[in-house]
Amino acid sequence: MATAALSDTMVLTGRSLRHWVRQPQLALLSTVQPVILVVLFAQVFGGAVHTPGTPYIDFLVPGVLVQTVAWDSTQTAVGIAEDVSTSTVERFRSLPMSPAAALAGRTLADACRNLFVVLLMTAAGTLVGFRPRGGAAGVAGAVLLVVFFGYAFNWFFALIGLTVRGAEAALAASFIWVFPLMFASSALVPTDTMPHWLRPFAAHQPISQAVDAARALMLGRPPGEAVLATLAWAVGALLVAVPLAVRRYYRAD
What we know:
The protein is an all-alpha fold. The protein has one domain (2-249). Helix content is 77%, strand content 0%. The chain has 10 helices and no strands. The chain has helices spanning 2-21, 24-45, 56-85, 88-93, 101-127, 135-163, 167-183, 199-204, 206-218, 226-249. α3 (56-85) packs across α9 (206-218). The protein starts with a helix and ends with a helix.
């Protein structure tokens, strides 16, 4: 049973990856846009944001990595909403395959795409001055942590894609969640520069925890509780979102 479920998941992962590769415009925009963000944010905010003891580019890159995987999770919601509206889900449900394979395949494919984009953005960051003092081990640990965090987000947004009707509604519903988390975070500016009422939320919400963990690993600093907090957020999201999404998958209409 487990072997069959894994095989089904791999087949549907390949389907989603081929769908991405066979759309050159989508593949190009998915890879070029995040690189532009790294360069643009570094140039726009580099002279305005004060990060004591750390060049802004070193502060920025880990934050943009986490922001990008969070933003790309909205595409999971859109893709699944499209599958529902085009009756693709109905066809999958009629096949003799594992109940969670369609969702697992889609979220795993999106995690593979995130891995590619994160590696590309890290390389682009080094071209504009990013210097990860944590060495290869720190960078590898940060990349894996960010991708795993993004994978957990993918399941949460898969649930959104199954709950709302239509791709446009899925995108709008995703923005409601991801925008406050992305910008009220430590990704682009230190949280101690924010208004007093906003700081507690900004410092402890999941994206800030993931940013702080990735930043510590990449810059060779003690990660403290940030890594554990990020893993806790990711595992907690999976424990909640996976069963709810699978259950909703069989009720989608």
